[in-house]
Amino acid sequence: MKLNCPLVNDLAVREKAVKALMCYNPLWLRIGLHILFGGDSLLLTTGDQDGQFLKEFIEKHLLTHIGIARKYALNKLVGGIYMPGYYEALGSVILKRFLLLAIALDRAKCESSLSIKHGIDSIDGGSPLLFTSDSTIKSSRQVIKGKCEISFISSEYLRLFYLFL
């Protein structure tokens, strides 16, 4: 993470990060979150409220960490007041999860092996598109690099990450 990254404490930047992740196709996003967090409820949810469920899941699980909050809590009875080092620790966990999600989704999309007759395109065996058709973001590189004005990763980590994509 960049030093003093606003992703961990600025609600507007967090909202932009959630919007960038919501550009992924909900089917693929559910699979990626299942890979990171487990839980069969991620694979069972479908329908009209799917987007809202995924958005809440990202906000409550991907962008927070209960263990770090407990470890750095200044007062166990009063929430939201943390000792020094909390934001750096949380930022590194968010960075790890964000990058793992992007790598997992790209790898899962590359490894999809549906037969051509079952798919919507004949390019990769007919699996669904990785991103929604109406999103402006069309690659995980754009999500990570910060096309949606969420450049929170330092350039040295971006270079390493692009080796994996």
SSE inventory with pairings:
Blueprint: H1 11-21, H2 26-37, H3 41-44, H4 50-62, H5 66-71, E1 73-75, E2 78-82, H6 86-111, H7 140-145, H8 155-164
Antiparallel strand pairs: 1-2
Helix pairs in contact: 2-4, 2-6
Order of strands in the sheet with the most strands? 1-2
How much of the polypeptide forms β-strand, as a percent range?
Answer: under 5%
Number of individual domains: 1
The run of helices and strands is HHHHHEEHHH
Class by alpha and beta content: mainly alpha
Helical percentage: 40-55%
Kindly report the oligomeric state of this protein: single chain
- The Rg value, from CA coordinates, equals 17 Å
Strands, count: 2
Number of helices: 8
Mean pLDDT: 77
Characterization of this structure:
- This protein has one domain.
- The chain is mostly helical and 165 residues long.
- The protein has eight helices and two strands; from the N terminus they run αααααββααα.
- The chain starts with 10 loop residues before the first helix and ends with a helix.
- It has a two-stranded antiparallel ribbon.
- The mean pLDDT is 77.
Key traits:
5% strand, 8 helices, mainly alpha, ASPM, single chain, 165 residues, 2 strands, two-stranded antiparallel ribbon
Task: Offer a concise description of the structure.
This protein has 165 residues and is mainly alpha-helical. It has helices spanning 11-21, 26-37, 41-44, 50-62, 66-71, 86-111, 140-145, 155-164, and strands spanning 73-75, 78-82.
